[in-house]
Amino acid sequence: MLPPKESKGPLDPRTCLLLTILYAGLIASSNQNAWLLLELGLIVVSTVAAGEMKQYAQWLRPVAVMTASWFIISLLAFDLRTALTASLRLVALTSAFFLFFRTTTPQDLGNALVKSGLPYEIAFVLSTSMQFVPLISRKIRNILDAQRARGIPLKPGFAALRHYPALAAPLLIQAFQLGEELAVAMESRGFGRQGRTFRRNYRMRVVDWISLGVAVVLVGTLIIVQPT
Amino acid sequence: MTEPVVQTRNLYYRYRGGPPEWVLEDLNLEIEAGEYLLICGPSGSGKSTLCQALNGLIPQFYGGHLEGEVRVDGLDTVEHPVSELFAHVGIVFQNAEAQLFNSTVEGELAFGLESLGWPQGEINERVTEIADAVQITHLLRRNPHQLSGGEQKLVLIAAALAPRPPVLVLDEPYASLDPANVDRVRRALNEIHNRGTTVVVVEHRLENAVIDAERMVVLHQGRIVLEGLPEDVLARDITRFGLRPPAAVRVGKALNLGNTILSVESLIAATGSQSLPPDLFPAQQAKNQPKGKPLLEIRDVAFSFQEKPILRGVNFALHEGECLALVGANGSGKTTLIKHFNGLYKPDHGHVLVLGQDTRRAGTSALAHHVGLVFQNANDQFFKSTVKEEIEVGARTLGCYDEDWLRHLIALFHLQPLLDRSPHLLSGGEKKRVSFAAALAARPKILVFDEPTVGQDWPFRQALGDLLGQLQDQGRAVVLVTHDLDFAEQCADRWVLLAGGKIRADGSPDDVMNDTKAMRQANLKPTQSFRIRQALGKGAEIHVAP
Amino acid sequence: MRTNTRKIAQAVILVAIGVALSPFTSFPVGIAKVNPTQHFVNVLGAILLGPWWAMINAAIIAIIRNALGVGTLLAFPGGMIGALLAGYVYRYTRNVYWAALGEIVGTGILGALVSGWLVAPVFMQKPMAVGVLIASFLASTVLGSVLGLLALSILRRAGYVELEEGQSTSD
Ligand SMILES: Nc1ncnc2c1ncn2[C@@H]1O[C@H](COP(=O)(O)OP(=O)(O)OP(=O)(O)O)[C@@H](O)[C@H]1O
Ligand SMILES: Nc1ncnc2c1ncn2[C@@H]1O[C@H](COP(=O)(O)OP(=O)(O)OP(=O)(O)O)[C@@H](O)[C@H]1O
Ligand SMILES: [Mg+2]
Ligand SMILES: [Mg+2]
Questions:
Q1: Ligand 1, from B15, B92, B224: best to mutate by most atoms within 8 Å of Cβ?
Q2: E-assigned strands of B378-482?
Q3: What is the pTM of this model?
Q4: Which H or E element spans position B352?
Q5: Of A130, B400, B526, B536, which sits most exposed with the smallest number of CB within 10 A?
Q6: B338 to chain A: nearest residue by CA?
Q7: Tens of pLDDT along A85-105?
Q8: Which of B319, B379, B314 is CA-nearest to residue B340?
Q9: How far is Cα B328 from Cα B381, in angstroms, rounded to an integer?
Q10: B61: nearest CA in chain C?
């Protein structure tokens, strides 16, 4: 699956993050299956609205497996109702964050957080490492091909672990070489110099504050109102 | 006279933990403002080291021991940090991927300006301006890692130039680019130079670089050994420094044309109707030699990645004793095709037969007995702690370890002195030799090399050429994938030209280069020596030379 | 600061490995899926970059895996705690084996407990479900930590890592 191209919606990434956390708080505090279902339903509706349904379906498959095992464990340990609640809560929580990450790019999140005091280095590692993931994946494929071409049977999965050095040694050494070249390139463009400015603005606007205010009130009320 | 924009005075340098010999030794170099300088020299002569000394990375980032002085734009590179110097000298290093670390081209161009703390408005203005100057405006929103090699170089050039440094330095900007991309980068550099920026290019491949440059410096074992106008430097014997003059220069010299001639055009203009002495070009393999039996047959192969067709209806056969060059532009599918030879990829349609066996029915391990594949990047395969183990491991896993044959290989590739060393710590050329030997360890009948000459100097190419000849004499078939048409012309008796996933031409190098339509489709340019032969000799007769 | 640039570049590379390698090394064991890559990166990060960067790396890997749609919320507690603990243990002992043990305890026990709490606060008091979580987390982290130690020796032999002198992990 590809990462989202650009952040969606009018809100600042920080607002989206806070909203998601608030919502997660609501889910965590819900103990009723009906409420959890409602909360999950709201996420699914928003996912459809954001045009992420296809990705959601894809993502859901492994999550379903995880949830099923979780369900079985809790069913064995407790009763059906607890097992259902626990599984629903797991799905709803992870889905909330799925939606957040599919609608806000890590770059935007990182850069916006820098404005709120996150050290720039951390935002840099966040956005830059995303850039290098496809490159490293390609290197891994090339290594597998190069080794298989001379008879070392490397395949993804357990075989990759059995012939671990044949994959790990070329990968690590090239990756660290790449790191060295990256460091050189960063130095050569002034990384680490004091007084960095930013090309793009991340500002909390009125909509952001209003949405946050509404959300706090709403979630607060719901947490108090909902039956336990 | 104004002060030179770059000046090194009695510069000595060696790396931390490296051997005690100097890597740069007593180096005195002055570069005038507005100059276009070419720095060349064989592998390991210290070219990249010199580049890194120009913006203070050496010694600030690498450590090591530096004596003497380097001044750039009036600033001493030891006293001023790299994060200040980069605004005075822009450097583009060789590996483009490692240097592109932003998610958009726009971000890439802005990064240096952001470091310098420019105000937002000025950053955006400058990004627009520099993108326009290098003609990459249409790429601004793209992800740099998804661009072609040539485009990536242009982005790096623009990023380096964004803070308006008076000097731009490029380390091997043309390596692994096809001719169309080389031309794009060359045009951009000439344009930048015309606007007044000092341009310094480090290159092995002289034929383009000497035409653009105003001055040339030859580096050998860390010292400047020749320096002057390209014409004057090339008039001397540079082969003893591991460099090969371009074909036009060699022919001009052989014809005693007086002034050194740099380009094919001026050579043709200067010679008039003079015909070529027959022994000028190394004899090509006699054509029409009886072919051995077919070892590899590609029958109507089609292949696609995620619905995107890469190969379509590819057909050819490879015979015993043949040396075939697979040529084509960047992204034309050459690497994808050779991965079919040993079953790493299976065709969507059609068949690949190795010694009559369909690759669909045999595993890659079984096919590895017959097909040796040497990939471009030797580092992709090294994982043992000594060269000896590294060469043996393939043969051992395949169960065809043969002591005598390995001894033969070690002698053939001159690996005796390296056997107990770690393969990771060898030089680029040495690593290549180890990977060649490793590919041959299982005694495959077919040997495939992907871009064996990238970044390698002339002595290496010459040695490789000899070696390919020996392999052919043993009855093996060799496939060479390369952008280096000079090398392909010298070594291969047959070319297969790939463009748009199809074979557009198949024949002797001259036949293929004569097919202007196919060459245009593939975006390739004939070699200098071919153009000279076409213009001056009655082409064909020349090959008959002994 | 000069050395800082190198450290940050290494962090970038480690994160990229952590994300890119996981589809190649994960395989199912029973009902759980074992993915040792995260813990392998944790051990390397803890030793090369120190506790805080190791933890930040783990957090970033979790964010990216979530953004790519290949990870879930559990990636956060499953990676960050072990990385932090391994980093601190290495800082005080200067011993790579202790660091690996720190990762194993941090992920296999603390991480599993926190995950259990995150997913279903109810389960905190019930030892059995937590036991299952601990077992599956332990399987991943033990394998990953062993591979991490192997990786470290590869890098040392190739000269990219010097642990004796100068490899200070102070931030
Ligand atoms: N980081 C390093 N540490 C130690 N030695 C190095 C380092 N980089 C280069 N060297 C050594 O310094 C010498 C000069 O290397 P350099 O890379 O400058 O050569 P070059 O002329 O650029 O060669 P090439 O054409 O192969 O790129 C070589 O002997 C090389 O092994
Ligand atoms: N694993 C892959 N997944 C998707 N597309 C790929 C993959 N490998 C290659 N391609 C695409 O296939 C096309 C052919 O690639 P290939 O590497 O075979 O070209 P090439 O002729 O070897 O180019 P170069 O001269 O640059 O090495 C390119 O457009 C490339 O983007
Ligand atoms: Mg070099
Ligand atoms: Mg290729």
A1: B15
A2: 446-450, 477-481
A3: 0.89
A4: strand B349-354
A5: B400
A6: A149
A7: 888 888 888 888 888 888 887
A8: B314
A9: 25
A10: C2
